[in-house]
Protein: Probable farnesyl diphosphate synthase
Organism: Methylocella tundrae
Amino acid sequence: MTEGAAAEFETRLKTVAEGAEDILDRLLGAATLPGEIARPARLLDAIRYSTLGGGKRLRPFLLVETARLFGVEGEGVFRAAAAVEMIHCYSLVHDDLPALDNDDLRRGRPTTHKAYDEATAILVGDGLLTYAFDVIADPATHQDAAIRAGLVLELARAAGFGGMIGGQVLDLEAEQSQAAHTTEAVIRLQSMKTGALLHFSVIAGAIIGNADARARAALSAYGLALGAAFQVADDILDVEADEAVLGKRAGKDAGRNKATLVAALGLEGARERRDRLAAEAIAALDCFSQGADAMILKEAARFVARRAS
């Protein structure tokens, strides 16, 4: 890949992050919507703390750039992107709670339950989860009710007990297991806990773009491989990364008997799997004729493999 493509990717990633930040800021404002009674100030403050001003916004990026493959851009696309980011941020708030990972640091600052309290953090997550579906279902996101319904269905399944939440349960069970974590079990867990929402981000762009069956199948393969590569890279970063760069506590996985591919395959084996998955994601897009736009998504797979935080 040329330096020019990498530079264009970085520019697009920054542009989408800024757009996502802008719409999240507006959606999470104090003004009530029709049917709402009030937005309590402390809850809103904690939600904004948990959602704004941090992260690469990779999930919004994948949704926006996939929709761009089919010539669809604008406010509605960014609303859908904001919804998936709300789901992601809610999952981080709950994941950090003492009952789960018990983390004190997220994105270089105190986690929500440390900055506020546990009860508020639970309600922040509940509020973001609910509001994400409010945003997706709103006609302002897309005028076609069938497309909105498709987005709601796919997001519910990606985030629910057969996806992200189910993966979290498997993660907790793995911590308590006395047996060695098998590669197959870790792959299944990670495909649910992390991969499902990344995969949805790509599929959502395809839904919004009215992709045909062939294009959607290719994008699904891309999203699955990219999501898997992302989590392997995360496992590696927990071993190798500097905590100040990572923005959260490093080296915690081994101490908590976490089911990771570093534990299952060794560090070198995990690196090889990460790189192989990134290559699979890139190859999945070879069927597209959209040139530079598809290349941006290919570069996203390379970014996932080389990221430092």
About this structure: The chain is about 70% helix and 0% strand. The domain at 3-306 is CATH 1.10.600.10 (Farnesyl Diphosphate Synthase). The mean pLDDT is 92. The longest strand covers residues 105-106.
